[in-house]
Design brief:
Elements: H1 2-26, E1 35-43, H2 48-56, H3 60-68, E2 71-81, E3 84-93, H4 98-106, H5 109-118, E4 122-123, H6 126-131, E5 136-137
Antiparallel strand pairs: 1-3, 1-4, 1-5, 2-3
């Protein structure tokens, strides 16, 4: 008698496992968790046109490296406040080791060459300048999907 009950339970578990795996395979590209990052920096007024031109024609190799490092939905916005230009950056990270992915990006020769073009256009905020970086991290205070 127990074997008659045991078989349907095993079949039920097996079918649900197959269904779960099939649904999971269909969800490829949809990570379980996404971390959002935002940052800000200044933009030198005399470099505004060049910076916009660079980003209007972003290098394919740099865009590919961004994807390889698990970054998606990457945007940079521009805002002028009292004659000073600021850049606001936002992206979503879908990987599991942010530090390793950022090191991989930083070691990429094409990305380094890109940064040699963009970095002189930017003007770090005092906090970032003191740390020797260009972009200042921002705190997320609200999010909704």
């Amino acid at each position: 008698m127990p074997s008659k009950i045991f078989f349907p339970v095993r079949l039920f578990v097996l079918l649900h496992t197959i269904t779960f795996l099939a649904v999971g395979c269909g969800r490829q590209g949809k990570p379980e968790s996404v971390r959002r990052y935002a940052s800000i920096t200044g933009l030198k007024t005399d470099r505004l046109g060049y910076y916009k031109k660079l980003h209007a024609q972003a290098w394919p190799s740099v865009l590919q490296k961004i994807k390889e490092c698990h970054i998606r939905n990457y945007s940079i916005f521009l805002k002028e406040v009292n004659g000073q230009h600021y850049l606001f950056s936002y992206f979503e990270y879908t990987g599991t080791d942010f530090s390793a992915d950022m090191k991989r990006m930083a070691s990429d020769p094409e990305t380094q060459r890109w940064w040699k073009e963009t970095d002189p256009c930017q003007m770090p905020l005092p906090e970032a300048h003191a740390k020797g970086v260009i972009w200042s991290d921002m705190e997320e205070v609200f999010h909704t999907d």
